[in-house]
Amino acid sequence: MALATVAAVLVQDTALGAQLDRIAWSQIVMAVGMGVVTLTILATCIAAFLLFRSVRKLIGAVEAQAKALAPKAEPLLTAASRVASDATGMSGAVKERVDEVLQTVQDLNGRLRDLMEETEGRVRDFGAVLDVIQAETRELLLDAAATARGVHTTAEALQAGRSRSPARRGE
After folding, report:
1. Whole-prediction pTM
2. How far apart, in whole angstroms, are the C-alpha atoms of residue 21 and residue 151?
3. Which tens digits make up the pLDDT trace of 21-40?
4. Apex CA 75: angle with CA 72 and CA 81, to 5°?
């Protein structure tokens, strides 16, 4: 009887039935949503676990490769270090030689300038000496020419006097 009473109440109150029906549907939708969320979280956890395993395998493979290459890399690193050291030494030596050459060129340039100044002074002095010699030579040549002319004139006069003298003697 109690069931019949409840059924009678339910039939009488259709509004209450509609509300209960909506509550049931919302609970079903919430349960399905919770199931979807749970499945999504579970799928994400499985994907993260698989990714973790893949990364772990990859790290293991990289470590194995590093261990396999380590003995081969050691001589290469040593040789590269030696080459770098040699290159540093060579560049230092080359720089030192270039500095020496530059110093030598600067010294030679200074000496050459001093020599040029000294030579220029000597050339000026020599030019002055030549000017004096030229002036003296000119005067000497003029004197010699004058003397030669005087000797020539005297010789002519003497010769003219001789030619008259024998003629006068013959007269």
Report:
1. 0.37
2. 169
3. 888 889 999 999 999 999 99
4. 135
16 neighbors 10 (Cβ within 8 angstroms): yes
In whole angstroms, give the CA distance from residue 133 to residue 140. Answer: 10
| Cβ-contact 17, 10 below 8 angstroms | yes
Q: Cα–Cα distance between 31 and 24 in angstroms, integer?
A: 10
- Please list, in sequence order, all residues whose beta carbon lies within 8 angstroms of the beta carbon of residue 83, skipping any fewer than 6 positions away: none
Residue type, 29: V
DSSP letter string over 105-160? HHHHHHHHHHHHHHHHHHHHHHHHHHHHHHHHHHHHHHHHHHHHHHHHHHHHHHHH
Q: How far is CA 55 from the centre of its chain?
A: 43
Tokens in use for 100? 């020496």
Please calculate the CA angle 164-168-171 and round it to the nearest 5 degrees: 145
Taking the C-alpha atoms of residue 113 and residue 118, their distance in angstroms, rounded to an integer, is 9
The DSSP result for 13-79, as a single string, is: -HHHHHHHHHHHHHHHHHHHHHHHHHHHHHHHHHHHHHHHHHHHHHHHHHHHHHHHHHHHHHHHHHH
133-167 confidence digits (pLDDT tens): 888 888 888 888 889 889 889 988 888 877 765 55
